[in-house]
Design a protein that fits this description.
The protein folds into two domains: about 350 residues, Glycosidases (TIM Barrel, Alpha-Beta Barrel), CATH 3.20.20.80; about 120 residues, Jelly Rolls (Sandwich). About 25% of the residues lie in helices and about 25% in strands. It is globular, with a radius of gyration of 25 Å. It has an eight-stranded parallel beta sheet. Strands 6-9-14-11-12 form a five-stranded antiparallel beta sheet, with no helix packed on it. Strands 5-15-10-13 form a four-stranded antiparallel beta sheet, with no helix packed on it. It has 13 helices and 27 strands. Helix 7 crosses helix 8.
């Protein structure tokens, strides 16, 4: 059974004072999905998709007016508001005590996990803009608690320094002018509170979307360069709509059209069934991609790569395949992995195994890459550009390709990149690196992206925390995308927070079926959304 790992958000580490505060997200229980039995070869039959399928569905699709962007005016000003905890509103067993190191010589203590223990600080916000929300806290024993804004959680934090008061900050929070209230919700740790603080955060206003970098592949095809240029021209002004499909059909795309009257710009599919060691049902994904491109759409592909040997699973906990063991000893220097590997250019894999240059496990990796490269060649021959996202969710540790650490992961990325581009000559690929931390960042990639899943019913918003983190991680030089999401982001909030992802990809299955149809309609009909019809009229 396949399990889809869900991420709420990145874990953000904020070094503040003498302690490190971790704002941590939540993870939902793993969702099981059925995998069908394997067949011997790729099906030669064409997918049940006609060339005029989009036109057929559009004839009966509803029509909606264009939804204009609605973004409040932001008036950046220097603001610093402070509320001492002992002067705030508190109840239950909470009480103030004296301590010399505190800002006013006093702090509030007595948290014991009881609901009647509440602490709230009221503020009058002078102007609508983005703010830092800060609290000064300490705890004798490390524990996790939450910061609330107007009764809604904005972040959880865990104290690592249990001796001193530490400033914990949530940044980039938009507040309109008027009243606001900060409060602390105890989860599993007793804490002492010194003060609350709200100050201006003007970093989001400095985000820029101008990028002059060329594709990392110096021999990138004309079509790949054209698509990348189109993405650059729209970055920060529009967002490309995208939808994942379950297999070779277009059921999800047609459903999007039925609901919104529009088709997505990007059709995202999965190359998993082309892997040599897989239990996934064999499907003709490439033919579906060709037909989508013929209809004017953008092709996006991921590769849920079942372990090349042993148990066929993408998940490290379900397979005994070890990436670290597959790396040739010649690639190791004093425990460090070489990232420019001759293995990527091997002509005769079997001979290299016989001569003990590489192991069977390493050979299995190369054979799988060769298999996928051969499958992708028809797209290259037709000069169809592909948004290519392999080895996704780096740093998560749940997939086998990231379970053995960042060094092994980067080695594999280099092997994959060089073998597909230099050895197999696939120059139609736009490489997307999808990770969560700088430690896992690779050298050769074109777009950086995040996968973000929220608990059902939770507002998606703009995901500015992840955007800003990725923006800094990539040194402000890369286009950023929302490569997987559990629902559609809020168009107005993305532009308000200046965190406009280049494109989004809504996952299929229960996520697609549970999406709010009205939000989907508004998103697809937004004046800032690029859908299939706009691609067809693009110069």
């Amino acid at each position: 059974m396949k399990k889809k790992i869900l991420l709420l958000s990145l874990c953000l580490a904020v070094i503040a004072g003498t302690g490190i505060i971790f704002f941590s997200g939540k993870r939902q229980p793993e969702q099981e999905e059925m995998i069908l039995e394997s067949t011997e070869t790729i099906s030669e039959t064409e997918p049940e998709v006609s060339e005029n399928e989009t036109e057929t569905f559009l004839e009966n699709a509803p029509e909606f007016p264009v939804v204009p962007l609605s973004v409040p005016e932001v008036n950046p000003q220097e603001v610093l508001l402070t509320a001492e905890a002992e002067h705030a509103k508190f109840s239950g067993a909470l009480h103030s005590e004296e301590r010399e190191e505190c800002s006013n010589g006093q702090y509030v203590t007595g948290f014991s996990g009881q609901e009647e223990n509440t602490l709230q600080a009221a503020f009058m916000i002078p102007t609508a803009q983005h703010y830092h929300l800060t609290i000064s806290v300490r705890a004798e024993i490390s524990g996790t608690n939450a910061l609330l804004l107007n009764g809604q959680e904005v972040g959880q934090f865990t104290l690592t320094d249990t001796e001193h008061f530490t400033r914990v900050t949530v940044s980039g929070v938009y507040l309109p002018a008027g009243q606001a209230e900060l409060a602390i919700q105890q989860i599993d740790g007793n804490i002492d509170v010194d003060y609350f603080e709200i100050s201006d955060d003007q970093e989001l206003q400095k985000i820029h979307y101008q990028h002059s970098e060329t594709l990392t592949d110096p021999q990138a095809s004309a079509s790949a360069q054209k698509l990348m240029q189109y993405l650059k021209e729209n970055y920060g002004n529009h967002i490309f709509t995208g939808q994942y499909v379950d297999g070779e059909g277009n059921a999800e795309l047609n459903e999007v059209c039925r609901i919104t009257g529009k088709y997505p710009a990007i059709r995202f599919g999965d190359m998993r069934s082309y892997s040599l060691n897989t239990t996934a049902e064999k499907q003709n994904i490439i033919s579906s991609c060709e037909q989508w491109a013929e209809q004017g759409g953008i092709v996006g592909l991921i590769w849920n790569w079942d372990a090349p040997e042993g148990t066929a699973s993408v998940y490290a906990e379900e397979t005994n395949f070890s990436l670290a063991d597959a790396i040739p000893k010649s690639e190791l220097t004093e425990g460090q992995v070489s990232y420019f590997s001759d293995v990527a250019m091997l002509e005769n894999i079997e001979s290299a195994v016989e001569n003990h240059e590489i192991s069977e496990s390493c050979a299995a990796i190369l054979k799988d890459i060769d298999q996928i490269a051969e499958a992708l060649k028809p797209l290259a021959e037709k000069d169809i550009p592909v948004l290519w996202r392999p080895l996704h969710e780096a740093g998560g540790g749940w997939y086998w390709w990231s379970a053995d650490g960042a060094q092994s992961y980067r080695w594999l990325w280099d092997i994959l990149y060089r073998r597909m581009t230099e050895f197999h000559g696939l120059h139609n690929l736009i490489w997307i690196w999808n990770g969560q931390s700088k430690e896992w960042l690779v050298d050769k990639y074109d777009i950086a992206s995040m996968d973000i899943y929220l608990e059902e019913g939770e507002e998606f918003g703009s995901r500015y925390e992840e955007f800003v983190s990725l923006y800094k991680m990539t040194k402000k030089k890369k286009i950023l995308a929302l490569s997987e999401c559990s629902t559609v982001p809020d168009m107005n909030l993305m532009f308000r927070d200046r965190t406009v992802w280049s494109f989004m990809g809504l996952w299929y299955g229960k996520y697609f079926s549970s999406v709010d149809e009205q939000k989907l309609i508004e998103f697809y009909n937004s004046e800032r959304a690029i859908t299939l019809d706009k691609l067809k009229t693009a110069p």
